[in-house]
From TrEMBL:
Intracellular or extracellular location(s): Cell inner membrane; Cell membrane
Keyword Methyltransferase: no
Transmembrane segment boundaries: 12-37, 64-88, 100-125, 137-159, 187-214, 234-255
InterPro entries recorded: MetI-like, MetI-like_sf
Pfam families: BPD_transp_1
UniProt record, GO biological process: transmembrane transport
Domain ABC transmembrane type-1: 65-253
Any single Gene Ontology cellular-component annotation: plasma membrane
Domain of life according to the entry: Bacteria
Taxonomic placement: Bacteria, Bacillati, Actinomycetota, Actinomycetes, Kitasatosporales
SUPFAM superfamilies reported in the protein's UniProt record: MetI-like (SSF161098)
Protein name: ABC transporter, permease protein
Principal subcellular localisation of the protein: membrane
Family annotation (PANTHER family): INNER MEMBRANE ABC TRANSPORTER PERMEASE PROTEIN YDCV
Amino acid sequence: MLVHSKGARRAVWTVFFVLFLPIFALPLLVVVAASFASNWSGALPSGPTTAHYQDIARGDSLEALATSLVTAVAASLLALTAGTWAALAAQRLGPRARRVLDGLFVLPVAVPSVVVGLSLLVAFSRPPLLLNGTPQIVVVAHTVLVTAFAYQSVTAALARLDPAYEQSAASLGARPAYVLWRVKLPLLLPSLTAAAGLCFALSMGELSATMMIYPPDWTPLPVRIFATTDRGALFAGAALAVTLLAATLLVLLAVSRIRTKAAYR
């Protein structure tokens, strides 16, 4: 911690808890409590029950969760591939061309995501690329929205990468492709896994663009949460939100373990 005096550290921690608890922790705790409640007549939800989670296990919500997981994994892999390739290619460009490339990748997150959804809806509404009404357009939308984060993460990692490793391998006669696969990418693996986790988490929670383009047979869980709460089923929506949160955290924990092993390597 940059603050060294004991009193200043106490003040920093006090401010942190004063801001963290009401803004971040308390709303999450209320959502968790609501997911186990049957009524809300006082300041907090009451009437403990597990009926909402039993309904999730018996209904179509598990299919919506599986849809979100498949979409997020596919979008994360595509975004990581495209972002890594672009970041590696940008190293060979001049400063001006690199700024243009940075701007192109950041553009989808600089505009409202609903605009991205509408643009894809218009772009893929005619042959030969007719994707409207298919699951593929949802994956494409999520990929467009999260690729910027993969690109920026890999670009930052490349800037910190010591070129001596690559130069040493090249001086020993290694081909550029061998240097890329056996030297550079393994060194980038911690950053790649972190970027993949970030892309996955963002895709799991994406709603605005998804609402514009999702087909009825490919409904991600955030859309189902919105529809459930919009009908007034607050407690069922809270249970779905907790399920989405738990699934996302479990995957991120698995990615974190991979990242830790990669860092030790």
